[in-house]
From TrEMBL:
Top-level taxonomic group: Bacteria
Protein name: GTPase HflX
Encoding gene per record: hflX
Positions annotated to bind GTP: 235-242, 260-264, 282-285, 348-351, 370-372
Subunit and interaction comment: Monomer. Associates with the 50S ribosomal subunit.
GO molecular function: GTP binding; GTPase activity; metal ion binding; ribosome binding
Task of the protein: GTPase that associates with the 50S ribosomal subunit and may have a role during protein synthesis or ribosome biogenesis.
Compartment(s) of residence: Cytoplasm
Keyword Metal-binding: yes
Amino acid sequence: MNSAEERALLVAVEFATRRSTLPPSAVLARDAARISAGIEEADAVFSAPLTHDSESSLGEFRELVVSAGAVIAGEVTQRRPKADPATLIGSGKVDELAGVAASTRANVVLFDHDLSPTQLRNLEERLPSRVLDRTQLILDIFARHARTREGQLQVELAQLEYMLPRLAGRGKSMSQLGGGIGTRGPGETQLETDRRKIQRRIVQVKDDLEGVRRVRGQQRQRREAVPVPAVALVGYTNAGKSTLFNTLTKAGVLESARMFATLDPKLKAIQLPSRRKILLSDTVGFIRNLPHTLVTSFRATLEEVQKAEVLLHVRDASSPVRDEQKAEVEKVLGELGVLHKPRLEVMNKIDLLSDEDRAELIASGAVTTSGKLGLGVEALLVRIDAELTADPVIEQTFTIPQAKGEILAALGAGAVLRDRQFIDNTVRMTVAGPASLLGRYREFRVDASTDRTRGSGGDSQSPDPLDPEPGHR
Ligand SMILES: Nc1nc2c(ncn2[C@@H]2O[C@H](COP(=O)(O)OP(=O)(O)OP(=O)(O)O)[C@@H](O)[C@H]2O)c(=O)[nH]1
Ligand SMILES: [Mg+2]
């Protein structure tokens, strides 16, 4: 499907009365730069100077649009005290927009804002092109990047559920499905547009999703039989998570300059300097104002984050809005209920900083990396090890009957073998591994204290490192 010809007119709206923080000269310079940079039809109405906030938000919106494969035909911005319930931007502005859409030959008008079903319907009636809002745009990008069956089903479900209440009166958008943003499902499929078929499809997709999740749950159980602490990379989209993940694991995970290249979590076991094994997972990037429906349907994808013992918050140290991005990421982490977890902040892309800024960052004690150049990776691994304090690595000796193959396998996979002897039909082995793993097999310990903790409630002896009460895992 060729959507390269898609010409998008961007509409940014700001509901605030506050004045621009840019001096007028800066606004002029910016507009001039934009015009000479080839954004066509300079009459593309800059009716209100934007604040810094909306300026960076618009930049991000442009990136999303390009990620969706469209060409930017023009931009319209507007500031109003509050949203118009019927059209979001107000009737007069809609007329103006219709003119710009026609003169820029835009075939799709994209709002950097969510539209209610009513607003969408009214706008479509009065504009010559298809109209899409921010959620649909993001869903479209998700649809293109979903790799696993589960990811694809999640995206399709979110798309269908979003579309259903917005179907009525969709003339241009839905009846002449010629492809383009908002019409693509995951893979090469086109989205269904008939109400009853959509409803049936929703039931089907939910069913399939249920099946896929069941299988995944079983796989997870198998994985968790060998307790290896999980560490998840989280962060704003484009912070460099996949690149760092690759550098850390040398795995061939897709990395891409386009946003949301990673939609499905990637998982890989790696070994830390202490020889402790961890499962590292790469996750989908967070983004400002991620539509709530999405957060819900992507909750399964973010399970890795919820299960992780330690989070690595990967930050783009070179971004001028890195602090806003950090706040945004922490907001999402709050929604996922994981703010209490140990979190290691990683200032990434330090190769893009000036020598001065880099020195300052390092002096502040921050963990600094360049995933791209492989800088700071060893130090990062050491720091991860140090964060896993809840489950320290200890050394113990066990005598295990050879018949207990599953225990031998679990210790073999989760701990480092120091010594092993075969005595009669038992294996006497000394291993170094996480206390939580070794604690499971304390009945086979050789030490005299082996039986101490069993069956007694209020004993006052000093805490046994083998008894971390791993009930929270
Ligand atoms: N200069 C520089 N560029 C980097 C570094 N790390 C990543 N990049 C680039 O930044 C872009 C985004 O990197 P990704 O690793 O895909 O970012 P991500 O956080 O996984 O993005 P999403 O999966 O979309 O959330 C790519 O063009 C990378 O080449 C770095 O340390 N230095
Ligand atoms: Mg990624």
